[in-house]
Design a protein that fits this description.
8 strands; 1 helix; globular; DUF2147 domain-containing protein; DUF2147
């Protein structure tokens, strides 16, 4: 019985870092979010080596945004619940400098182009 307990402890020590990396270290940021303007809902989930925000609902289906469109983000931790890096939008073939932060149950994304001269921030609320 003691050997089994030691084996399980050793296994959890070895497996936990792998499971943590599988989520990319994004913890509470993963899941479903609604844009605060009410026009879109996305699911944040790992996709290969990136984190993807995939549109799951769009208010105006005639807009340039479509259900299934995704943003591929390559982000690194830049502090507690803050990630920075780049994002690629394959639908529009555009790359952005990207910052994502989680504070008080709200997710804030900020994307910039032209060396940071043109930026847009969007606030998100978690949905179940």
């Amino acid at each position: 019985m003691r050997r089994l307990a030691l084996f399980l402890i050793a296994l959890s020590v070895l497996v936990w870092p792998v499971l943590a990396r599988a989520g990319g270290g994004f913890g509470d940021a993963l899941g479903n979010w609604s844009r605060d303007d009410g026009d879109a809902k996305v699911r944040l989930a790992p996709c290969g080596a990136a984190l993807c925000a995939t549109n799951t609902w769009i208010r105006d289906p005639a807009s340039s945004e479509k259900v299934g469109d995704r943003l591929e983000m390559k982000l690194q931790s830049s502090g507690a619940d803050v990630w920075k890096g780049t994002a690629y939008d394959p639908q529009r073939q555009r790359s952005y400098a990207m910052t994502m932060s989680l504070k008080g149950g709200k997710l804030l994304t900020r994307g910039c182009v032209l060396g940071g001269w043109l930026c847009k921030s969007v606030s998100w609320t978690r949905i179940r």
